[in-house]
């Protein structure tokens, strides 16, 4: 009789567990769906989502349950025996309890079938959607370096001060990028934006940069506080919030892995410092770009003028900007052979050419030497790598494109997702077609 | 308190009874079943069917197999209550009560609708009260007490149809249908050998019948089944919210609360006869027709459109959610 009295409680416990299990499955499915959408539409999930899943399951377990005993008995393969036993217990009828109790064997697994079979295809489908995105993306910083190397080794040329000869840059002459000097946005997004013809206004870029800088500075403060005073709950929460708001995906993931578990806060601080340094350079360059945009085209300038339109920085964030030291290393070899000619590059002052108008008749170029010594004086130089855009003052033939074989080899050498590889290939294909026409 | 051994003994006894009835009655399984449900539920049965279908034979066989006393009352318009209940006669010792045919364990009231309402009322009151009062003395009827009343549905001339209130006193109603061809062949074969009718020997005692009745009474019924029975009863009432369309259209008066009692008792008896100790939904659904069919009063529209009680009850059964 006592054992029989415990039976309803066991059944209720099983039913609660069943409800919690299915709630967990539903929440996990939702989570997978959100994760999938986040990957595709570029939003990140809140860090407390696992807590929501756990809390939802616990709530489903603890919520009051209304049991329809006859149906439960049928689900357990007992028919009306369970309801009969409960009625006998309720009526305090020991004869029928003794007759029915030996026939009531709980087979808990029956509570989960056949619904569990319906869950399997859902999860399988979700996994199929999700798995291709699980391919590890290369770190954006590395990608930037790759783009640099690939483009430089295959098609970037430096105009020669003498005549129209082009002198390809040697791959070994390319310096490594300083740490933290990465693209502000994901290169994949930018390439996609290029392909789709989406242009980001310069004001928005500036706003994003300012926002990112503010976040990074705040993060640096919080990290400094954490390193000095130790990590408490408030700092931990603030760290997680600030890190989740950082827009650079590579930096965000690196920082979140560094601050997670407070294991590597110093590394996080170093990452933030490097990123801030990079942002400062970008801003500095942008301001210089603004000032150079006011100078009429064709006026002599030191070093390389930025190719492209004045807001090309905003339009082409993939262009990799180098600092002065890198340039020094890069052009050191040239200086040795062409000393006294500055960087050996210059342009004659000419008439500005408006877009859409035919280019003026070519004049024989003359070498212009500017008496400059590298590293001295107020002069500032910059160098932009990447694909040169079409500018009003230059002919399209100044753009050198990689050979298809080289492009293919480079693309295959990189661990790029297949879709992205196709996009890059198509990008160069479009450029090549434009070149041919 | 009945014990598990007694319950199992009663179940075995009822199995023997069914077997014994099967040796005499060919077919009519549903009718036999309903009669046994009424016996176990301590109720009475209204048997409806055309003459010659073996209604009387069934009752006689049942009484014989049960080892119970049996009496038959052929109802006619001139039958008086005293002819059924008994009367006081004067003898040398003074007045003494001479019991009527109702003082038997199994009573067959043949063609009950031919008796006058006064006589019907006396019989039905005895059925309900299980006692007879004559003069100043009350005489209890024997236990078990089972009345099986028959009526002919097609012959209305010179009859007094039972009022609804009287019909309601019958726990169940069994509709005796025509036998199938193979059953008919067997009936003809058995009754044309010239050996006469051979009734079975008693296979269980009156005590075992009472034991079986006690077991059925003690049968536990879960609240969900009781609720289901109540929903079924209420669904036959046209003024109830959520009543099926046919009920609202064709029913004049719905089933009484006795229908719910009959339903649960019939279901319990069915489960007991099946050798189970618990109810299933099928038990209730099987007992639904015999418990409800004589308790539903349809309106003229139903009669005009040829809609019968079972047509309405089928929709009720389909509409009301199961436990």
Keywords:
heterodimer; A: 437 residues; mainly alpha; 16 helices; 57% helix; B: 323 residues; alpha/beta; five-stranded parallel beta sheet; 15% strand; globular
Blueprint (SSEs and pairs):
The complex is a heterodimer of chains A (437) and B (323).
Chain A lengths: L1 H40 L7 H14 L6 H7 L5 H10 L3 H7 L14 H16 L9 H15 L2 E3 L6 E3 L18 H10 L5 H28 L3 H13 L3 H11 L5 H29 L18 H4 L8 H14 L66 H10 L4 H19 L1
Antiparallel strand pairs in A: 1-2
Helix pairs in contact in A: 1-2, 1-6, 3-4, 4-5, 8-16, 9-10, 9-12, 10-11, 11-12, 15-16
Chain B lengths: L3 H19 L6 H12 L4 E4 L6 H12 L3 E5 L6 H5 E6 L2 E6 L6 E5 L6 H13 L1 E4 L2 E4 L5 E6 L12 H4 L4 E4 L5 H11 L14 H13 L4 H13 L9 H6 E3 L3 H17 L7 H12 L4 E2 L1 H6 L3 H11 L4
Parallel strand pairs in B: 1-8, 1-9, 2-5, 5-8
Antiparallel strand pairs in B: 3-4, 6-7, 10-11
Helix pairs in contact in B: 1-8, 2-11, 9-11, 11-12
Please explain how this structure is put together:
- The complex is a heterodimer of chains A (437) and B (323).
- With 437 residues, chain A is mainly α.
- Helices cover 57% and strands 1% of the residues of chain A.
- A two-stranded antiparallel ribbon of chain A has the order 1-2.
- The N and C termini of chain A lie far apart (94 Å).
- With 323 residues, chain B is α/β, with parallel strands linked by helices.
- Chain B contains 14 helices and 11 strands.
- In chain B, a hairpin with a 2-residue loop joins β6 (131-134) and β7 (137-140).
- The interface between A and B is medium-sized, with 23 and 19 residues.
- Give the termini distance of chain B in whole angstroms: 29 Å
Approximately what portion of the residues of chain B adopt beta-strand conformation? 15-25%
Order of helices and strands of chain A: HHHHHHHEEHHHHHHHHH
Tally of DSSP β-strands of chain B: 11
Annotation field: number of helices of chain A: 16
Tell me the structural class of chain A. mainly alpha
Assembly type:
heterodimer
Name the shape of chain B in a single word.
globular
Number of strands of chain A: 2
State which percent range the strand residues of chain A make up: under 5%
């Amino acid at each position: 009789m006592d054992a029989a009295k415990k039976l309803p409680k066991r059944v209720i416990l099983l039913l609660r567990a069943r409800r919690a299990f299915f709630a967990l499955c539903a929440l996990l499915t939702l989570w997978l769906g959100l994760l999938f959408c986040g990957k595709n539409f570029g939003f990140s999930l809140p860090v407390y989502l696992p807590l929501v899943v756990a809390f939802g399951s616990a709530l489903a377990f603890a919520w009051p349950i209304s049991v329809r005993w006859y149906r439960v008995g049928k689900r357990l393969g007992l028919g009306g025996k369970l309801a009969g036993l409960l009625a006998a217990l309720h009526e305090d009828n020991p004869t029928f309890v003794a007759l029915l109790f030996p026939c009531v064997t709980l087979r808990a697994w029956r509570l989960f079938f056949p619904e569990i079979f319906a869950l399997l295809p859902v999860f399988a489908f979700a996994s199929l959607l999700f798995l291709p995105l699980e391919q590890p993306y290369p770190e954006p910083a590395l990608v930037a370096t790759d783009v640099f190397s690939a483009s430089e080794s295959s098609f970037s040329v430096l105009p020669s001060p003498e005549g129209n000869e082009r002198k390809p840059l040697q791959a070994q002459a390319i310096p490594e990028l300083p740490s933290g000097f990465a693209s502000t946005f994901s290169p994949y997004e930018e390439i996609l934006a290029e392909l789709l013809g989406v242009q980001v206004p310069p004001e928005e870029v500036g706003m994003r940069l300012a926002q990112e800088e503010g976040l990074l500075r705040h993060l640096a403060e919080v990290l400094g506080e954490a390193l000095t005073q130790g990590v408490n709950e408030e700092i931990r929460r603030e760290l997680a919030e600030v890190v989740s708001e950082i827009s650079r995906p590579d930096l965000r993931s690196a920082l979140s892995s560094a601050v997670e578990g407070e294991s590597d806060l110093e590394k996080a601080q170093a990452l933030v410092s490097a990123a801030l340094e990079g942002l400062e350079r970008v801003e500095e360059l942008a301001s210089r770009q603004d000032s150079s945009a006011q100078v009429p085209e064709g006026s002599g300038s030191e070093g390389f003028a930025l190719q492209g339109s004045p807001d090309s920085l905003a339009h082409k964030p993939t262009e990799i900007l180098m600092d002065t030291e890198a340039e020094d290393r890069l052009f050191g070899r040239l200086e040795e052979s062409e000393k006294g000619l500055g960087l050996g590059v210059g342009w004659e002052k000419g008439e500005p050419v408006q877009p859409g108008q035919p280019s003026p008749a070519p004049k024989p170029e003359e070498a212009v030497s500017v008496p400059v010594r590298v590293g001295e004086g107020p002069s500032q130089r910059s160098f932009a790598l990447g694909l040169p855009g079409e500018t009003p003052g230059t002919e399209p033939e100044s753009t050198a494109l990689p050979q298809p074989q080289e492009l293919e080899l480079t693309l295959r050498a990189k661990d790029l997702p297949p879709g992205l590889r196709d996009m890059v290939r198509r990008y160069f294909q479009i450029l090549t077609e434009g070149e041919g026409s | 308190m009945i014990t598990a051994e007694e319950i199992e003994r009663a179940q075995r006894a009822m199995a023997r009874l069914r077997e014994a009835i099967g040796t005499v009655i060919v077919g009519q399984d549903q009718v036999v079943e309903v009669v046994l449900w009424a016996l176990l539920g301590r109720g009475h049965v209204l048997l409806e069917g055309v003459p010659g279908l073996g209604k009387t034979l069934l009752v006689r066989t049942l009484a014989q197999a049960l080892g119970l006393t049996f009496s038959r009352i052929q109802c006619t318009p001139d039958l008086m209550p005293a002819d059924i209940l008994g009367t006081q006669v004067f003898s040398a010792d003074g007045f003494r009560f001479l019991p009527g045919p109702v003082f038997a364990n199994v009573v067959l009231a043949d063609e009950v609708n031919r008796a006058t309402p006064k006589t019907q009322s006396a019989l039905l009151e005895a059925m309900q009260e299980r006692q007879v009062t004559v003069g100043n003395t009350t005489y209890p009827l024997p236990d078990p007490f089972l009345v099986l009343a028959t009526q002919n549905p097609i012959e209305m001339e010179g009859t007094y149809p039972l009022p609804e209130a009287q019909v309601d006193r019958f726990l169940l109603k069994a509709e005796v249908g025509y036998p199938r061809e193979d059953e008919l062949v067997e009936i003809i074969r058995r009754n044309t050998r010239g050996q006469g009718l051979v009734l079975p020997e008693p296979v269980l005692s009156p005590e075992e019948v009472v034991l079986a009745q006690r077991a059925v009474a003690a049968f536990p019924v879960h609240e969900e089944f009781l609720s289901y029975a109540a929903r079924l009863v209420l669904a036959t009432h046209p003024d109830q919210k959520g009543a099926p369309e046919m009920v609202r259209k064709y029913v004049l008066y719905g089933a009484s609360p006795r229908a719910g009692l009959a339903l649960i008792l019939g279901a319990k008896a069915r489960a007991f006869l099946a050798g189970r100790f618990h109810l299933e939904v099928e038990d209730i659904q099987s007992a639904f027709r015999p418990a409800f069919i004589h308790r539903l009063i349809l309106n003229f529209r139903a009669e005009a459109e040829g809609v019968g009680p079972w047509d309405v009850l089928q929709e009720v059964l389909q509409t009301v959610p199961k436990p």
